[in-house]
Design brief:
Blueprint (H helix, E strand, L loop, with lengths): L6 E5 L3 H13 L3 E5 L2 H8 L6 E5 L1 E2 L2 E2 H10 L6 E5 L4 H9 L4 E4 L4 H34 L3 E6 L4 E4 L1 H7 L20 H12 L3 E7 L9 E10 L5 E10 L1 H10 L4 E2 L2 E2 L3 H14 L5 E4 L6 H11 L7 E5 L5 H9 E2 L11 E2 L1 H4 L4 E5 L6 H13 L1 E2 L8 E2 L3 E6 L3 H6 L5 H7 L2 E4 L10 H16 L5 E2 L1 H9 L5 H15 L4 E2 L6 H15 L5 H11 L4 H8 L3 H10 L8
Parallel strand pairs: 1-2, 1-3, 3-6, 6-7, 15-22, 15-23, 16-19, 19-22, 24-25
Antiparallel strand pairs: 4-5, 8-9, 8-12, 10-11, 11-12, 13-14, 17-18, 20-21
Helix pairs in contact: 9-10, 16-18, 20-21, 21-22
């Protein structure tokens, strides 16, 4: 704090002390005022803000402690230093306990006085700065339209803004209470992602979920939970941001032009139908069979059905049926008791039991054996299961969603899949189109993956080149969305530029590009002949040969190796 701007009040009934303090402090450039009594000090303090106060403990019939009490009552943000000619431990401890900055004993040396003054004013400057930060944060909190809620390590609510009351029904009265015990009057989806953020120390988002706020029927929000970590990496809590997107959601739904639904990307006509069907199925407790080629996003659809429905607060348990042998799958799904088979050294809860009250997603359902088909049929009919090695039935309340990239109807005809199970699983079938049938969604997917991988790899790749975009639009994508994602991830690893180019693409795309270029030129010359001719024209320079052919240098090297083209034969 600038000494010429610091305002100091000296309160003492001894004129010599007032005079001495005033001279010492004024010589340092401070603006000094004096008072000879408690009443005089109160008069001086009326309407005037001081940066520091020196107060004698003995002030006639009153004391400096009385003045300290008065300052505390009026929230006077000013450090006070007590001064006395009769020091004792009780007086010193009482002063500090009541908020005095320091305690000086008479006679006060000049250097001690000035040193203590500088420390007190530095403390005041720090207090003022913190207060400015606090007021700025409060102003930001008030101005933000999204609900902001901060919680500590034990889920205690630390702070909320005004929007939290409007969106979530969480007001100032919730501060200090545990969020899990607060009367949220909603599905509690925010609690799920807060716990995930706490357990993993990572940010999580629930995109456009219905929060079932009783005061706002049909309210759709996006919830983000981010851990609060200091510069030393110490976790202190979570900040929750809830954005009310009901109006935008309704508008998009009315226009039928939603570009994203839950974590599914796409605005094509096919995807709009998928979105509507998911909404229709969300609260209907029926089985759903999701079909489509590998990589079309069947798992994302299962997640959307679960999290959009009234089971969203329950667990979503996923099982890849093709990844386990028949025996392991049985134990995984239904659990087992100790001693049921070799290696079963303790009881185990199965996935169906873990999914009680929620949803189980059985992927690759077409790969399960006839024996497992029968067991699955029984649990769906009777809503109860038996653990491996136990005959006691256990009731479960589980919604079943399955997925396959196989033709189950054909498997039924060939006797590989039970017809009764097929029709029970296929109460509603939701078929996902391959990426080649919804090419208008490819630009949206590209933009989404650019954001995802920039964050993952900490890069700043802003776009793909026009050539790459054209290739992506023309390519058949046999691996569908998963192949597109892996292609861009590969490009991110390879690229050192801010734009992804043809040279950054994997081999499969390079081969496709080359074949397209050869086809466009309408040449009948063999691949190997074209490579040899280009190398001859370039004098063996592979980079020039690549430019002649319009392919990448990497493709030239690969073709030279593939056709065993020796330089001496070129």
């Amino acid at each position: 704090m600038n000494a010429t701007k610091a305002r100091i009040l000296v309160v003492d009934d001894e004129e010599s002390i007032r005079y001495t303090f005033q001279n010492f402090l004024a010589d340092e450039g401070y603006e000094v005022y004096t008072a000879d009594s408690y009443a005089s000090a109160l008069s001086q303090l009326s309407g005037v803000r001081y940066d520091l106060i020196f107060a004698d403990v003995k002030l006639g019939g009153r004391t400096g402690i009385d003045l300290l009490h008065k300052l505390n009552e009026s929230n006077h943000n000013c450090p006070i230093i007590m001064v006395t000619g009769y020091p004792n431990i009780d007086t010193a401890s009482d002063s500090v306990r009541l908020g005095a900055f320091d305690y000086l004993s008479k006679p006060v040396r000049q250097d001690t006085l000035l040193h203590t003054t500088r420390l007190a004013l530095q403390h005041k400057a720090l207090q003022d700065e913190n207060e400015r930060y606090r007021l700025n944060l409060e102003a930001i909190f008030r101005s933000v339209k999204d609900a902001i809620i901060t919680v500590g390590k034990d889920l205690e609510v630390l702070e909320v803004n005004e929007a939290a009351e409007l969106i979530c029904g969480i007001g100032r009265m919730t501060v200090g209470k545990n969020l899990s015990e607060a009367n949220l009057n909603c599905s509690g989806k925010c609690l799920d992602i807060v716990r995930k953020a706490m357990n993993t120390n990572k940010s999580f988002e629930a995109y456009r979920t219905e929060c079932d706020q009783k005061r706002h029927d049909g309210q759709v929000v996006t919830i983000t939970a981010s851990p609060l970590v200091d510069r030393n990496g110490v976790f202190s809590g979570v900040v929750i941001v809830v954005r009310d997107e009901t109006r935008l959601y309704d508008l998009e739904r009315n226009l039928r032009e939603r570009s994203q639904f839950h974590h599914i990307i796409g605005k094509s006509r096919q995807m709009q139908k998928i979105y509507s069907l998911i909404e229709d199925l969300a609260d209907v407790q029926t089985t759903v069979l999701i079909t489509g080629d590998s990589g079309t996003g069947k798992e994302l659809v299962a997640e959307a059905i679960h999290y959009k429905g009234n089971r969203r607060s329950g667990p979503l348990v996923k099982v890849n049926c093709s990844a386990l042998s028949d025996g392991l799958l049985e134990s995984e799904l239904f659990g087992h008791v100790k001693g049921a088979f070799t290696g079963a050294d303790k009881d185990r809860i199965g996935r169906f039991q873990k999914a009680d009250g929620g949803t189980i997603f059985l992927d690759e359902i077409g790969d399960i054996s006839p024996r497992m088909q029968l067991r699955l049929l029984r649990i769906m009919q009777e809503r109860e299961l038996e653990k491996v090695g136990d005959s006691n039935p256990i009731k479960v309340d589980v919604r079943v969603i399955t997925a396959t990239n196989q033709d189950l109807a054909q498997k039924v005809k060939s006797g590989e899949f039970r017809e009764d199970l097929y029709y029970r699983l296929r109460v509603v079938e939701l078929n996902l189109p391959p990426l080649r049938e919804r090419r208008e969604d490819i630009p949206l997917l590209i933009d989404s993956y650019l954001q995802k991988f920039n964050k993952k790899f900490q890069k700043n790749i802003i776009a793909v080149s026009e050539d790459v975009r054209k290739v992506f639009m023309d390519y058949g994508w046999p691996g569908n969305i998963r192949e597109l994602e892996h292609t861009l991830e590969h490009a991110f690893v390879i690229s050192r530029k801010d734009t992804i180019t043809i040279d950054d693409l994997p081999v499969e795309l390079s081969d496709f590009i080359e074949q397209e270029q050869i086809s466009d030129r309408g040449e009948n010359v063999s691949d190997a002949q074209k490579i040899r001719e280009a190398l001859r024209k370039s004098g063996g320079n592979k980079s020039k040969a690549a430019r002649i052919l319009g392919v990448s240098v990497r493709t030239i090297y690969r073709k030279i190796e593939k056709y065993d083209i020796l330089e001496e034969k070129v």
